[in-house]
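fold-stage: in
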Amino acid sequence: MAKLIKQGALQDTDPWSTDTDGYRLVTLEQWQNERDAVLAELSAGRTGLLLDSHETADLIGDDSRHFPLIAVNFPKFADGRGYSAARLLRERHGYQGELRAVGDVLIDQLFYMKRCGFDAFALREDQDSSDALQALSTFSVTYQADVGEPRPLFRRR
């Protein structure tokens, strides 16, 4: 079973189940084809959206505000499109809910995923959770701007 890190702590849940820690994930296609039904479901309970790697954040756009959770799939660790989706959701579309990285999520990616706007991570099964928690604070200072700190280091002085 994959491990879920959320709010800086390990959660005891299966992040890939159809009922993910209380959320039912719908696909972008379901949202586009059954919008009214999904909206009704959103008002009645906890429904999240699953974006696959080939689906850009602009396909959901400002509608992202309807979802308390958006999970972005990384089908393989070398596929970086999820990083762009996270930045676009946070910066362009102002998404404030939980942004979860799922799929082939490795420890060495967590710090960078966090900088792009992810705040929850479904680790691949073979990843060590204690090492993963430490990886989230690999560096105390970054030079470049990110979602959490839009000013580069030289502007923070």
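fold-stage: in (second)
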Amino acid sequence: MHGFKGERVLMRIHIGERDRHDGNSLYEEIVELLRKRHYAGATVFRGITGFGANSRVHRQKLFGLSSDLPVVIECVETEENIKAVLPELDRMISGGMITLERVKVIMYRPHAAEEEGPDNWALDVTGSWRVGTGKAE
């Protein structure tokens, strides 16, 4: 995939490490779904502690035994592709949360670097805060 720059959508899927789908690990099933759909990539993060809607704290126990640690799967894709996969994720996930946010992709290198024009790395920062002031304005 070339030209993967500009505005995209970051999808974060918050689930538990022990969550299952069709007898398999849910996070592995989600990553495989995204891979089969030829998405740009997905990364799974395992949390060290956290809690969800039931307010029960999940943390690693003594000697590394898991107590259903939090897992976050991140994927950056086009809005169209993210919208297309949401119904299937809804069928797979029995408990958890999906968040979406707009992101600006400045670099994506799926293979060895190719001949590209140089980027000026300028950032278009908008909002009610300013860099370097140390306080919100």
